[in-house]
Amino acid sequence: MYKILIVEDDLIIAKTVKNHIRSWGFEAECVTDFKDVLATFVSYSPQLVLLDITLPFFNGYHWCSEIRKVSKVPIIFISSASDSMNIVMAMNMGGDDFIAKPFDLNVMTAKVQALLRRTYDFTGQTNLLEHKGSILNISDATLNYHDRKIELSKNENKILQILLENKGKAVSRDTIMTRLWETDSYIDDNTLTVNITRLRKKLQEAGLSDFITTKKGIGYMVE
């Protein structure tokens, strides 16, 4: 089931849109913390975003730009500021479509369905994991931190995914190796050590020192 994130500060409009979208079989949630829309985006991991332009604290252009740093998820702007300049700005900032207020709910739903179909009929869904300001994009094997994009190898991406999925818990070396190669057969222990060392170096160069800690006799941990 596709998940839609609604970024709209007018509670009546937000609730109406959410209920209508749900009636069509989608999951939908509304942002409530407009100081950090990106945090809600990462935790909810939607397949599409409906985004107003005029918002408290930061406008929709800002949040579109922030989302685009970590994800290619479809974004539809919804706004009463529907002059040509704002429409062009929305598209240039990374928006995929624009719906002018007031709008017909059925037209909006048709646009949502069409964009979801075009996006996900041929590509997989994006998976994001966040920790202390860093965002791991599992789909394209990158870690974003303070406007820096760190390219990860396949193994580094998988190791970080495993550790972030188990934040606050020590993960044994055996568990990591089994997940890495999806096999119970023996793998040289040094291979994991080399991958961890390379990953730590990349993280440190990006300003993420001590991101991965070693738990002696157990394995590794992200705290």
Automatic annotation (TrEMBL):
Q: Which UniProt keywords apply?
A: DNA-binding, Phosphoprotein, Transcription, Transcription regulation
What are the TM regions of this chain, as residue ranges? none
Q: Does the keyword Transmembrane helix belong to this entry?
A: no
Q: Which GO terms describe its cellular component?
A: cytosol; protein-DNA complex
Residue stretches making up the OmpR/PhoB-type domain: 126-223
Read off the CDD domains from this record.
REC_OmpR_NsrR-like (cd18159), trans_reg_C (cd00383)
Q: Which sequence positions carry the modification called 4-aspartylphosphate?
A: 52
The protein's role, per its UniProt record: May play the central regulatory role in sporulation. It may be an element of the effector pathway responsible for the activation of sporulation genes in response to nutritional stress. Spo0A may act in concert with spo0H (a sigma factor) to control the expression of some genes that are critical to the sporulation process.
Protein name as it appears in the record: Stage 0 sporulation protein A homolog
